Amino acid sequence: MLPAVLSAGEDRCKDPITTPDINYCAYQEVLAAEEVMDRYLAASRERFAEEPEVVAAIDTAQESWLEYRDKHCGSVYTLWSGGSVRGLMANQCRLDSTEHRTYELWQAFLTFMDSTPPVLPEPKRDSE
Fold it and tell me: Which segments constitute the Lysozyme inhibitor LprI-like N-terminal domain (predicted)?
């Protein structure tokens, strides 16, 4: 039964027409970006596992960033309160912010000053 549900969701996003489908598909993109960000966050923590103060600082920054993103994208949602596009605009805000944060994690914690290859590949930014 699950594969049928998955393919129904995939079909729904092939060519979304209705507002609910567009919002659903935009939200699926946000969820996928959050999964990528979580991988980069976990790798950042792992890289500095021997330095608990760095891990604590990463965690504090991530909590603050999540609060900022939610409030900022909430304000975007409020801005578009008069139309059906509000969900899409808020989800696009979440997507762009999440991709940008993933890049920040990569740049700050998963790259090196010398020619050592990064811990993870460079992530895409702002819906490239």
Answer: 18-105
